Amino acid sequence: MLENQVNTKQILRFKIIESYNQRYSTRQIAEYLNISQRQVVYWIQKWNNEGRLSSKKRGRKKKEKSEQLEQFITQKTIGNRNLSCKELSLLCKEQFQNECCSTTTVYRLRKQLKFDYKPPKIRQCLTELQKIKRESFAYDHQSNETNWKNVVFSDESWFYLNPTRKKIWRRRNENDDSVFDEKEKFSKKILIWGAFSHDIQTDLIIIKGNVNTEVYLEEIIKKSRVIELANEEYGSLHWIFQQDGARPHISKKTMKYLNRRCMVLDPWPPNSPDLNPIENLWSIMDKKLLKTLPTNEHNFIELLKNIWDNICWETLEKLSLSMKKRIELVIQREGESINGFY
């Protein structure tokens, strides 16, 4: 009699999880099985957190084995970030003779251990001289207590109409048009420029062709009205313009034009996109673009402008103020890349 009751309870729990996997709500499951919604939520949470439906506590030996398995999975995952769940499952079976180590179990434990399958983080490769210049730059601005609210950050960036890294949901052996991405020899890409500070944001500039000194001054600096906008907000010569060390940015003609109208944050350390907060804006735009499917270049440009125009002010303010933390991190890391640390 007692055994039948245990089996009935176990079947009920499996029905809860089965219904949950079929996308039924907790309320619908409770009504269907004639049990409380609280009970449904409890077993769903237990399944998600522990991967089991037993109400009994694990014995000490079983718990120790589980901890050893988790440690092994952590060690192997960190040792080889490209190791698949199938490969790791085979390694686990070799290590733990009597332990159940299916591919699904390995995947669940990896998720439980907070591992996610994502593209690797990117950081620039820096020479020793570049590290020294970055650290010197950071020390100078820390000692001078630079007011980063008054700094206008600027940069160019390429955006691709058909990024190759996008992912879609598809079944094996599906061959209709919707599962294919037409690959062109030369992907369509658009070069944009933008600038922002704690209190201002320019229009997004679409750049056609290569950028030289003339294009930079006429089509970007003048067309964006960045100097006029900053003067209106901060007052003439009461703000600082940031740009990287690209040749059109630091040519004699460009610097002569800029120095007559504003202060320039010079020199910006080479190979230091991680120091520029505008890179975070490009990343935000990139992620939003992946959620849409622009059909042609015109739609693509309009979408880029729309995303840029709708970035909230709170984001701009936080990014502007993040410079203080970035400077501190560069000093702490002795000039090394700070990507992923802020």
UniProtKB/TrEMBL annotation:
Pfam families: DDE_3, HTH_23. Gene3D superfamilies: Ribonuclease H-like superfamily/Ribonuclease H, Winged helix-like DNA-binding domain superfamily/Winged helix DNA-binding domain. Residues 151-291 form the Tc1-like transposase DDE domain. This is Transposable element-related. The lineage of its organism: Eukaryota, Metamonada, Anaeramoebidae, Anaeramoeba.
